[in-house]
Design goal:
The protein has 6 helices and 8 strands, in the order αβαββαββααβββα. With 186 residues, the protein is of the alpha+beta class. Helix content is 35%, strand content 22%. Bound molecules: zinc ion. Residues 131, 133, 135, 150, 152-153, 155 line the site of zinc ion.
Length: 186
């Protein structure tokens, strides 16, 4: 395949940190659902982990409700590319209200690839993955948003993907008086 971009490398490292394929039959697998993954990608954009990604509000289904979330189209495209290369696998899960949600997991070749990538990429992704206490964090879907949780020291933080105010503020039009109809000042 063509060489992975920096963002693709960091994405496969990120996904490999939160998922685990089974090594033998009946062994438990760990998958990450699409919204928690997109939430981590969004957080990674703010922390400078993903330098080529942007995000925009998009309507998503989260725990049975439709909500606007900050979604990175580039991140989604890279997930699709990594899947095409066989580094990640997708599972479609039917929810109780008959909506399909996707979940992702690194394949064995994805885990191997992640392990072979340069240290600076791992260090960058650690910003999303590692707790201040040094332990790996896990991600939990809760009613209001996904949360990063450290089971060792008990610290937890909300991963904001539904807070679209910042985008609205940055990209919103700036109205000055000249744009207002004459009688609007009354
Ligand atoms: Zn901790």
């Amino acid at each position: 395949m063509t060489e992975l971009t920096q963002d693709q490398k960091r994405l496969i490292i990120l996904i490999s940190n939160f998922t685990k394929p089974a090594k033998k039959r009946n062994e438990e697998e760990t998958w990450i659902k699409k919204i928690p993954l997109l939430a981590l990608v969004n957080r990674g954009i703010h922390l400078g982990v993903f330098e080529g990604y942007d995000f925009a509000p998009s309507l998503v289904d989260y725990m049975g409700t439709s909500r606007y979330a900050n979604v990175s189209k580039e991140g989604e495209d890279d997930v699709a590319d990594l899947r095409e290369e066989g580094y990640i696998e997708r599972l479609k899960l039917a929810t109780s209200n008959h909506v399909y949600v996707s979940a992702y997991m690194s394949t064995h070749s994805g885990i191997k690839l992640a392990g072979s990538l340069e240290k600076p990429h791992h260090d960058a992704v650690d910003k999303l993955v590692k707790c201040k206490c040094g332990s790996p964090k896990s991600i939990e879907s809760r009613e209001d948003a996904p949360y990063l949780v450290c089971k060792k020291c008990g610290s937890e933080e909300k991963v904001d993907i539904f807070d679209i105010r910042e985008v609205a503020y940055e990209s919103g039009p700036v109205f000055s008086d000249i744009w207002l109809p004459p009688d609007s000042t009354k």
